[in-house]
Each structure stands twice: as structure tokens, then as C-alpha cells.
Specification:
heterotrimer; A mainly alpha; B mainly alpha; C mainly alpha; A: globular; B: mainly alpha; 2 helices; flat
């Protein structure tokens, strides 16, 4: 079947890429530059925000990384439904769990930032509401997984829920913030951050920051995946060998 | 081999940019936070970051050992 | 295929008609809510009326649609597995839930108007929005009750899974409904209604694609 070879092509490529060292070195370099340069390099001088505009390099990438990890998790859920190998379910679950961790970081840092710039930690801003909703959806995913012990059943049901929830989440998160006034830049009449960055002084740190944090998210997920694959191999050696040779 | 070239190029680029940045002094910081204390903050952040990265690298090595053992 | 679809829907409707379990249960629930609100707050103004109505719709949906998959005995699914295609089964359940939910929405609208007044200027528009909303709510909860039925038959699980997904839909619906409450006709409301209809279609198609994977044991 043409679809199955596509899935196995993706999984083989990712298996090899997980263990390479070069993208991890790029991650460390980008993050080191973000940490040092993000604090020392010049930024636009704006009222209300003052120095906190530097949070752009640390808070926004949390959400971007979360979305990329969730997308990868959904891809692996689809691959699991195609191939039926438990290994793909392990990948999907670890990617999604790492995404949940990043979303918690993003929410907490967002609330801390809001408390000192917008006045209060929670201001019913639609973007905050939309992201809180996405966190609830994935907490429900974790609850769903915890309730089942049978591995195959758990894998199948959580894969179905993952695809369903993600596909509904994307339009809902897109539609909601555009319907209502917002404090976030770029929505509800506020100019987007691009207009703040007139001399590109922020862009030079922003893109390495995005790359560094995204790679860090995948690095952490890859470590979790590899730990669980070792455990899977030890506990379920027979099934592991069957799946490897299929 | 090509990967090593790409990585070396990027590393040198970042080093050059960072070096150039620290040549400008702390007067670039906002009026609220000047007098050179910003470097203390950067040192703290860099220590935390280095600690996390070292921890991750150690984890990687342990996992590689585990995988090889099986 | 149309034959098995129709007979499945007919079977569900017959079961419901003989016991009238859901119909009376939900009508009682809405009636007592309306009565309690009237006793506590009299006739609320338009915005609060709207909010209370949509909140009641949410709980009506959870109560009436939960039974669609959760009342079947788990072993009976194996029997259905041998006689009918999974897509047909899911679509039949969805069709039945949508029909049930439509009736319950109209009943609750009637009960609301009896005691709490009718603050709507454009009643027809509000009824249309109610119907569209019932379709989306019941479609989402049908699929989620299928998931919950597979994972240990827990109705609470369905509520946990459903609440985050349904909340933005409710917000869109109440936003739309507010436009129907306003005394002036506001152009551009139909964009949101179209978006909602597209969302309904997405839910139904997604459910139809994903259900066969749930179906296999």
C-alpha cells in the first residue's frame, strides 16, 4: 500500500535523525545566543513594555514549540492508526506530553508578563482563553490515557481523540481571538510586533530564539521517546521484535 | 563532514555577533537598569542554561549506553 | 446502506418512544431550572437570559446525548459489528441525537419563554441559531460518547473530554444569539453562522473517518 510505505519512510527517517548530534549542537548555539544576546543586545524603547519586550525571545517561542510538538504528535497518531505498531503510539504520546509541558511554561510566563505590563495576571484576553482551552483539551487527553491499562486499546482510543481534538482546536483557536477585542499585539486594533521592530534589532535574536527553543523541545521529546523505547523493548521483547521486522 | 562544516560556520557567526554585542556597553540598557549590573543577570542566566544543557548531554550519553547494551 | 441506516434510527426512536426516558428527564430538568431561576431572579434581562439559555443547552446536550452510546451493552457492539458498516452506525446515532437535541431545544425554548419572558426582537433568527447550535453540540457529544463507551463506559469521562471542545462553540453561539437579541438587524452575522455550519460539517466528517478505528476491537 502506498500510504504504508510513506509512514514507514517517515518513521525510519525520524529514527535516524533522533540520534544525530548536529542539530543538538545548533540548538545549544542558538539558545546560548538567545540567552546572552537577548539580554545584552539593544531593543526598541517603548512605553509600558520597557525592558520586558525581551520576553519576546522567551515567552512566544514556548507556544510555537508547543504547536510544533502537538503537530508532530498528531502526525504520529495518524501513523499509528495506519501501521498499528505500539512504537508509534509511544512517539505520539511522548511528543504530546512534552508539548503539554511547554504549554504550562508558556501560560505561566504569560501570566507573569501580563501581571506587570497589563496590570493583572488574568484579564480574560481571548488569546489567553483560547490557549487555556487548548491546555484543557490536552489535560483531558492525559486523563483519557491514564484510565486505560490495555496498551492497544489505550493507543487506539488516544490516537483517535488526539486527531479529533487537534483538528477541532486549530479552527477554534484561530476564530476566537479574531472575534473579540484583545490586549495582545496584532489583535483587536493593536499594531503587531512587526511594526515595533523598525530597525530589525529584534529580528536578529528572534529567529535564532525560535529555532533554538523548537530544537530544544524536540530534543527533550526525543530523550523521553528513547527512554520509553528502551523500556518497551525490555518489557515487551517479543512484540518489539515482531514490529521491528514488519 | 558537511554537517561539521555547517555547524562550524554557524558557531563562528554567533560568536562574532555576540562579541560585537558585548563591545557596546551597558548604557544600551533602559534608563531603569544601567550601571553594569546587567552582566550579573546574564551570568545567572548563563549558569542555569549551562547546567540544564550539561544535564541533557549526560542523559543522552546514558541512553546511548543503555541502547547499546540491548 | 440507506436501509440499515433508516432501521437503526427507527430502532433508537422506538426505544425512546416506549420509555420516553430522555424526553421527560430533560424536560423535567429544564423545567425545574427555569422555575428555580424565576423564583430567585424574576425575569432576567436579555444578556443574562441568553447566557442561561445556552448553559441549559449545554447540560441538555450532555444528558440526552450521553445515553446514545453509553446505554448500549458493550457486548451488543459485537453483534452490530457483524451486520452493519461502522460509518453507517455512527451516522445513524448522530442523526438520532441531532433529531432528539432539536426537539429538546425547542422544548426548552418554550419553557424559557413561559416563565422568563421573551426578550428577543428577532425570534425567527434566534430559533434558527438554536437549531444550528443543537446540531453542533449533539454531533460533538455523540462522537465523544463513542470514545467514552470504548474506554470503560464512563459518562463523566465524556463530560471531561467534551467541555474544552464545546466551550468555544458555545461562545460563538451566544455571540451570534446576542446579535439576534439586538433590536436592530446587524449585517454580517451570517458569516459566523456559515463558520459554525462549516464546523458542524467538519465534526461529522471527522467522526465518520475516525469511528472505524474505534469500532475494531
Amino acid at each position: 500500500m502506498p500510504e504504508k510505505t510513506f509512514s514507514t519512510a517517515i518513521t525510519n527517517f525520524v529514527d535516524k535523525a533522533l540520534r544525530q548530534w548536529w542539530w543538538k549542537v545548533i540548538c545549544i548555539a542558538c539558545l546560548a545566543f538567545t540567552v546572552v544576546g537577548g539580554m545584552l543586545l539593544p531593543v526598541p524603547r517603548l512605553n509600558i513594555l520597557n525592558e520586558t519586550i525581551r520576553n519576546l525571545y522567551y515567552h512566544v517561542p514556548m507556544w510555537i514549540t508547543m504547536m510544533m510538538l502537538y503537530t508532530a504528535g498528531v502526525v504520529y497518531s495518524i501513523i499509528y492508526l495506519r501501521t498499528g505498531k505500539l512504537k508509534d503510539d509511544i512517539y505520539a504520546y511522548q511528543l504530546t506530553v512534552t508539548g503539554v509541558m511547554f504549554s504550562i511554561f508558556g501560560m505561566i510566563t504569560g501570566m507573569e508578563w501580563a501581571k506587570y505590563t497589563w496590570g493583572q495576571a488574568w484579564s480574560n484576553d481571548p488569546k489567553q482563553l483560547g490557549t487555556a482551552l487548548s491546555m484543557l483539551v490536552y489535560f483531558a487527553y492525559l486523563v483519557l490515557r491514564n484510565g486505560m491499562k490495555d496498551e492497544e486499546k489505550r493507543a487506539k482510543i488516544s490516537a483517535v481523540y488526539n486527531i479529533f481534538a487537534f483538528t477541532l482546536l486549530i479552527p477554534l483557536i484561530w476564530i476566537l481571538p479574531r472575534m473579540v477585542d484583545s490586549l495582545h499585539p496584532g489583535n483587536g486594533g493593536n499594531p503587531a510586533f512587526k511594526s515595533y521592530d523598525r530597525d530589525f534589532s529584534m529580528t536578529i535574536v528572534l529567529y535564532p530564539a525560535f529555532i533554538g527553543w523548537i530544537l530544544l523541545g524536540f530534543w527533550i521529546a526525543s530523550i523521553c521517546i528513547r527512554i520509553n523505547m528502551v523500556r518497551y523493548r525490555q518489557e515487551n521483547t517479543y512484540q518489539f521484535e515482531i514490529e521491528k521486522h514488519n | 563532514m558537511r554537517k561539521a562544516y555547517i555547524v562550524t560556520f554557524l558557531l563562528s557567526l554567533f560568536t562574532a555577533l555576540t562579541a560585537h554585542a558585548s563591545a557596546n556597553d551597558a548604557e544600551m540598557a533602559d534608563a531603569m537598569r544601567s550601571n553594569g549590573k546587567i552582566y550579573v543577570v546574564v551570568m545567572v542566566l548563563a549558569t542555569i542554561f549551562a547546567g540544564i544543557i550539561l544535564f541533557l548531554v549526560r542523559l543522552e550519553r546514558n541512553i546511548k549506553k543503555l541502547e547499546k547494551k540491548n | 446502506m440507506a436501509n440499515s441506516f433508516l432501521s437503526l434510527v427507527r430502532k433508537d426512536m422506538l426505544i425512546e418512544w416506549r420509555q420516553k426516558h430522555t424526553l421527560f428527564g430533560v424536560a423535567l430538568y429544564v423545567g425545574s431550572t427555569v422555575f428555580a431561576i424565576y423564583m430567585m431572579a424574576g425575569q432576567p434581562e436579555a444578556k443574562i437570559w441568553n447566557a442561561l439559555f445556552w448553559l441549559t443547552q449545554l447540560f441538555v446536550a450532555v444528558n440526552s446525548v450521553a445515553k446514545s452510546f453509553l446505554q448500549e451493552h458493550p457486548h451488543r457492539f459485537r453483534y452490530y459489528f457483524t451486520i452493519v458498516k461502522p460509518t453507517t452506525f455512527l451516522l445513524a446515532k448522530m442523526c438520532y441525537s441531532i433529531a432528539l437535541m432539536l426537539i429538546m431545544s425547542l422544548v426548552s425554548l418554550l419553557l424559557f419563554s413561559l416563565l422568563l419572558g421573551w426578550p428577543l426582537e428577532q425570534g425567527g433568527l434566534f430559533v434558527v441559531i438554536t437549531l444550528v447550535g443543537s446540531i453542533s453540540l449533539s454531533a460533538v457529544f455523540t462522537f465523544l460518547s463513542a470514545i467514552a463507551a470504548r474506554a470503560h463506559q464512563n459518562a463523566a469521562l465524556m463530560a471531561i473530554l467534551g467541555f474544552p471542545l464545546v466551550t468555544p462553540v458555545l461562545m460563538i453561539l451566544s455571540n451570534l444569539a446576542l446579535k439576534a437579541i439586538a433590536p436592530v438587524y446587524q449585517p454580517g452575522w451570517w458569516i459566523l453562522a456559515l463558520v459554525l455550519l462549516a464546523l458542524d460539517l467538519l465534526i461529522i466528517i471527522l467522526g465518520a473517518i475516525l469511528f472505524p478505528f474505534l469500532w475494531q476491537e
